């Protein structure tokens, strides 16, 4: 919901929605862009009406503030923060009506439903009224929490409750030699791979998040002794065991692993796990088209992160003192990377194809980064699963503009790992020939792999263009989506501007493709 608009836009003639940067937005009045909002928050104006005081808000009090000119919203339930969003109304890209849906109540779901990554805490910090008054809670047994970690921890009640609903409860253990400490996670799942676990070691804190089905299991510890920056991660697939091997700085015997940090040893639905960020350094930037560049970032040496195919991450930059976050889909360094040795080791670098919108908020800032500068990169998100490729015979990819990005790794993976695959066809929609990303790679790939074919469709071609023209349509799709046999197993992946994707899905259903045969990439 709280996605960020760009600079300034002409006054709208009506409340019609426009699509910009991937989602529908209400056109904002002149002077009501995010930059204008940031300027207002920096003006020193009292935006809460409380002259800088923070108060405890009861549920009864919250309910009273449910009008447009007096609208309070609580985020994150009973322990959450309460904001006076009235001054923000006109700046909200989702429109006033959307914001009013949470007036005088808990807006967490509304915020999460749309864009849970948006850092409202940073954007709305000047609107903070206070915290919800906490109801007296049942006395808690702190004995367990104070315990140091010396091996297996007794599981918390929260973990137990969730584990009953989710995957069988994971656990961890550790052991040591003179020079090494090995932390072992028992996931009790067979389909664990190297991209299921994300490890970050920063200063003394050690964090390992394991994705088990739709759940996140976290180990978060302040280590009792110093370790070296690098470590290794191994998976024993058939038993779902993960081993993280740390190198001790000094060869002493550890009495305990360390002290638990926030949410240590917890299993929560992935959607409820906060996003964790680490700083990555810009290594190179290369023009791919007139407005799209290939960015290469280096992960810190003490991070293990492999973004699963079809998933995206969030990039975070501080723009005029406000944290701004936008999603991007990592790609390979080249479309042909499976056919050649990578120039740089795969697991330490992360590549993005990013289109720069001159009037956009985030991408011009990204474009101004110098080699050596840093950007924050989050853990991955997304719901594509490579199991969707099982026994697949025909893979059809429908991409518009930068909607091509998820297709890059998909293409590489499918052509190299799926023996049943007979045909992969990409229909790539762009305005002009100059907008086609990696056209020469795509054409080269058609020669390298006979199963692959590409069709370019242009919406604003020059008169000499003799390829396909127009927008996504039932006629284009029915001609393109020919199965290799009547009963062949098909998957159609679609990604682009939201209305493109929505229309495409509608046409696909009209052409009798089932829900299971279609995967759409969205936020
Ligand atoms: P914005 O400020 O969002 O503006 C974009 C354009 O829309 C500008 O021209 C601006 O003038 C116009 N605009 C903005 N708001 C309004 C409004 N209210 N009314 C009228 N016009 C408006 N992009 C990539 O390039 N590569 C990727 O790999 C990629 N992956 C993505 C993955 C996901 C899951 C999603 C959801 C999106 C992805 N995107 C990707 C898009 C990306 O997240 C940003 O939306 C995009 O980079 C634009 O950001 P911006 O802040 O620069 O532009
Ligand atoms: P673009 O260049 O503006 O458009 C690409 C092609 O799509 C053009 O031919 C364009 O036609 C057509 N198109 C645009 N809107 C359409 C609509 N409503 N119906 C049918 N065709 C339409 O695209 P872009 O600027 O690169 O934007 C790519 C989009 O993909 C962004 O919105 C981005 O957020 C999204 N994206 C999403 C993900 C994800 O969810 N995982 C990943 C990457 C990118 P016209 O000439 O008529 O405009």
Automatic annotation (TrEMBL):
Q: Which InterPro entries is this protein grouped with?
A: Cbr1-like_FAD-bd_dom, CS_dom, Cyt_B5-like_heme/steroid-bd, Cyt_B5-like_heme/steroid_sf, Cyt_B5_heme-BS, Cytochrome_b5/Flavoprotein_Rdt, FAD-bd_FR_type, FNR_nucleotide-bd
Question: Which stretches make up the CS domain?
Answer: 167-258
UniProt KW Heme keyword: yes
Family indicated by similarity:
Belongs to the flavoprotein pyridine nucleotide cytochrome reductase family.
What are the protein's UniProt keywords? Endoplasmic reticulum, FAD, Flavoprotein, Heme, Iron, Metal-binding, NAD, Oxidoreductase
Protein name in UniProt: Cytochrome b5 reductase 4
Q: What's the Enzyme Commission number for this chain?
A: 1.6.2.2
Ranges of residues in domain Cytochrome b5 heme-binding: 54-133
Q: Where in the cell is it found?
A: Endoplasmic reticulum
Q: Where is the composition biased (Low complexity)?
A: 1-16
Which residue ranges are recorded for the region named Disordered?
1-24
């Amino acid at each position: 919901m709280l996605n960020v608009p760009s600079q300034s836009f002409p006054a709208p003639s009506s409340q019609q929605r426009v699509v910009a940067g991937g989602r529908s937005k209400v056109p904002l009045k002149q002077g009501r862009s995010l930059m204008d909002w940031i300027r207002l928050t920096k003006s020193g104006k009292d935006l809460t009406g409380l002259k800088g005081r923070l108060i405890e808000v009861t549920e009864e009090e919250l309910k009273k503030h449910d009008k447009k000119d007096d609208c309070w919203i609580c985020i994150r339930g009973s322990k959450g923060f309460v904001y006076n969003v009235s001054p923000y109304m006109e700046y909200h890209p989702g429109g006033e009506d959307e914001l009013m849906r949470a007036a005088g109540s808990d807006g967490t779901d509304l915020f999460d439903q749309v864009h849970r990554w948006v850092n409202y805490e940073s954007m709305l910090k000047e609107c903070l009224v206070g915290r919800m008054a906490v109801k007296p809670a049942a006395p808690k047994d702190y004995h367990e929490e104070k315990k140091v970690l010396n091996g297996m921890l007794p599981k918390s009640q929260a973990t137990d409750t969730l584990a009953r609903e989710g995957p069988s409860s994971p656990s961890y253990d550790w052991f040591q030699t003179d020079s090494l400490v090995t932390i072992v996670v028992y996931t009790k799942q067979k389909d664990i791979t190297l991209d299921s676990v994300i490890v970050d070691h920063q200063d003394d804190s050690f964090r390992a998040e394991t994705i088990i089905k739709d759940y996140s299991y976290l180990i978060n510890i302040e280590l009792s002794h110093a370790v070296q920056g690098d470590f290794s991660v191994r998976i024993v697939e058939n038993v779902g065991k993960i081993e993280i091997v740390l190198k001790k700085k000094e060869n002493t015997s550890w009495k305990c692993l360390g002290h638990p940090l926030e949410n240590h040893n917890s299993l929560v639905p992935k959607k409820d796990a906060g996003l964790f960020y680490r700083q990555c350094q810009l290594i190179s930037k290369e023009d791919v088209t007139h407005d799209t560049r290939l960015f290469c970032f280096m992960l810190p040496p003490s991070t293990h992160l492999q973004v699963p195919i079809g998933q995206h991450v969030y990039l975070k930059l501080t723009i005029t003192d406000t944290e701004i976050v936008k999603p991007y889909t990592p790609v390979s360094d080249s479309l042909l990377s499976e056919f050649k040795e990578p120039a740089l080791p795969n697991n330490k670098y992360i590549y993005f194809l990013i289109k720069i919108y001159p009037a956009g908020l985030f991408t011009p800032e990204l474009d101004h980064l110098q080699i050596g500068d840093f950007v924050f990169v989050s853990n991955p998100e997304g719901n594509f699963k490579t199991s969707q490729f099982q026994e697949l015979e025909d893979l059809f990819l429908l991409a518009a503009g930068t909607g091509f990005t998820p297709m890059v790794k998909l293409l590489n993976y499918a052509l190299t790992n799926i023996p049943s695959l007979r045909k992969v066809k990409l229909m790539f929609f762009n305005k002009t020939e100059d907008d086609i990303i990696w056209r020469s790679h795509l054409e080269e790939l058609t020669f390298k792999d006979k199963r692959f074919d590409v069709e370019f469709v242009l919406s604003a071609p020059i008169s000499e263009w003799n390829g396909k023209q127009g927008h996504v349509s039932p006629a284009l799709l029915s001609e393109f989506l020919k199965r290799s046999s009547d009963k062949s197993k098909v998957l159609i992946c679609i990604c682009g501007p939201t209305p493109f994707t929505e229309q495409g899905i509608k046409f696909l259903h009209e052409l009798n493709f089932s829900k299971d045969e279609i995967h759409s990439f969205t936020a």
